[in-house]
Amino acid sequence: MLEQRYRWKNRQLRMHVSVLDGTTAPTILLKNALYLNQTFKKWMRANIWIYDDRIVYVGENLPANTENCEIIDCTEQILVPGYIEPHAHPFQLYNPHTLAAYASQFGTTTLINDNMALALNLPKREAFSLLRDFRSIPSTMFWWCRFDSQTEILYEEETFSHSKIKSWLEHDAVLQGGELTGWPKLLNGDDMMLHWIQEAKRMRKKIEGHFPGASEKTLAKMMLLGADCDHEAMTGEEIYNRLMQGYMVSLRYSSIRPDLPKILDDMKRMGIDAYDRLIFNTDGATSTFYEQGITDAMIRIAIEKDVPVIDAYNMASVNIARYYGIDHLLGNIATGRVANINFLSSVENPTPVSVLAKGKWVKRNGMKVEDAYPSVDWSQYGLKPMELDWELTMDDLQFSMPFGIKMENSVITKPYSIAIDVSGDELTTDHDECFFTLIDRKGKWRINTMLKGFANNLSALASSFSNTGDIILIGKNKQDMLMAFNRMKELDGGIVLVEEGEVICELQLPLAGIMSNLPMEELMVQEKRLLEELKNRGYSFSDPIYSLLFFSTTHLPYIRITQQGMYDVMNKTVLFPSIMR
Question: EC number(s) (predicted)?
Answer without folding.
Answer: 3.5.4.2
